[in-house]
């Protein structure tokens, strides 16, 4: 990006596409327009997954295409937006688009975290962000980080939220309410169901590390999911980067099941230890997610460039410790 006045003008245009001529991505409408101009809601049945490829297959191809295990987490926080960007809801999509355009060739996935959108009534911005990735970079899987989980009837609604409303490739699910709370998700053979196993946060051990029948609860979760819930081969686990020895233990229980790994960057997880502990024999098996360290790498007009540099740095560090296939 050029510097100076031209640059400001250019950025202003890119951040306000509605006023420019840049072709914007058509966002999905949930209303069917009838000839007499009344509107009727479209059925909320789950949309058929595009193509025949499962999430796991799409992920494997994405790992390979970009030679990357990195995922950029899309956690748009208006209070942290770079100075030149208006701190209003309409800017959320433009900010995300800048980050996506700057990093798409470096990542294996994107992970929007739903709270950053719903907290400020920006669900439309989430839809536009997901649609933008699907239209422009259709080979890159989108993971909705929603950590859903509830009784079966409500879980059905959460399933529709993820796979019909947002039509994402994969969703994070909290397994701690048991099988019936995960079952509506698990039935979707072609989508990825990413279940919390050992999370990255400081308090993760309060419950997940409690010993039951001689082993920590997170190990029970890993075993349960790999032996009983993975009948459609569509399960993955959330395993934080902040506890590599636990990750290594989980890897030994679940074989090659992929892990979504938050906790590098802002949370300080050690990349070398995490990659060594979690990768599979062929040097994959991980979706390593970083949000704040990439999104807010610069507070200035060069934020997208800075996000790209951070992503390159992390990608190279990760690749340094990967097994070669
Ligand atoms: O165990 C977990 C599960 C999910 N997350 C989510 O990942 C990102 C982390 O953001 P950073 O800025 O890279 O720390 C965020 O969306 C969390 O909700 C997690 O951190 N740990």
UniProtKB/TrEMBL annotation:
Pfam families: OMPdecase. InterPro entries: Aldolase_TIM, OMPdecase_AS, OMPdecase_type-2, OMPdeCOase_dom, RibuloseP-bd_barrel. GO terms for molecular function: orotidine-5'-phosphate decarboxylase activity. It comes from the Bacteria. The active site is at 147 (proton donor). Keywords: Decarboxylase, Lyase, Pyrimidine biosynthesis. Its EC number is 4.1.1.23. It catalyses: orotidine 5'-phosphate + H(+) = UMP + CO2. Pathway: Pyrimidine metabolism; UMP biosynthesis via de novo pathway; UMP from orotate: step 2/2. GO terms for biological process: 'de novo' pyrimidine nucleobase biosynthetic process; 'de novo' UMP biosynthetic process. Residues 69-307 form the Orotidine 5'-phosphate decarboxylase domain. Belongs to the OMP decarboxylase family. Type 2 subfamily. This is Orotidine 5'-phosphate decarboxylase. It comes from Desulfobulbus propionicus (strain ATCC 33891 / DSM 2032 / VKM B-1956 / 1pr3).
């Amino acid at each position: 990006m050029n510097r100076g006045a031209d640059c400001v003008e250019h950025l202003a245009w890119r951040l306000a596409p509605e006023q420019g001529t840049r072709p914007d991505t058509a966002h999905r409408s949930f209303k069917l327009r009838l000839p007499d101009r009344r509107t009727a809601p479209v059925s909320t049945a789950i949309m058929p997954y595009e193509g025949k490829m499962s999430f796991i297959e799409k992920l494997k191809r994405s790992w390979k295409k970009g030679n990357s295990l990195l995922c950029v987490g899309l956690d748009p926080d208006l209070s942290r937006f770079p100075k030149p960007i208006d701190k209003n809801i309409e800017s959320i999509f433009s900010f995300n688009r800048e980050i996506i355009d700057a990093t798409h060739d470096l990542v294996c996935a994107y992970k929007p975290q739903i709270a950053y959108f719903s907290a400020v009534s920006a669900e439309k911005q989430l839809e536009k962000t997901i649609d933008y990735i699907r239209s422009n970079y259709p080979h890159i899987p989108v993971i909705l980080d929603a950590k859903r989980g509830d009784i079966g009837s409500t879980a059905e609604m959460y399933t529709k939220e993820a796979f019909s409303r947002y039509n994402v490739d994969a969703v994070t699910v909290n397994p701690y309410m048991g099988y019936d709370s995960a079952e509506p998700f698990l039935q979707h053979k072609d989508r990825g169901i990413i279940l919390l196993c050992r999370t990255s946060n400081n308090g993760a051990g309060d419950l997940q590390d409690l010993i039951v029948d001689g082993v920590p609860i997170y190990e029970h979760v890993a075993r349960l999911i790999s032996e009983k819930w993975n009948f459609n081969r569509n399960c993955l686990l959330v395993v934080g980067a902040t506890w590599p020895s636990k990750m290594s233990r989980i890897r030994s229980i679940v074989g090659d099941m992929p892990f979504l790994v938050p906790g590098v960057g802002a949370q300080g997880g050690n990349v070398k230890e995490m990659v060594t502990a979690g990768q599979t024999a062929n040097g994959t098996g991980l979706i390593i997610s970083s949000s704040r360290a990439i999104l807010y790498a610069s507070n200035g007009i060069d934020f997208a460039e800075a996000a790209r540099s951070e992503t390159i740095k992390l990608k190279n560090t990760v690749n340094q410790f990967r097994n070669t296939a």
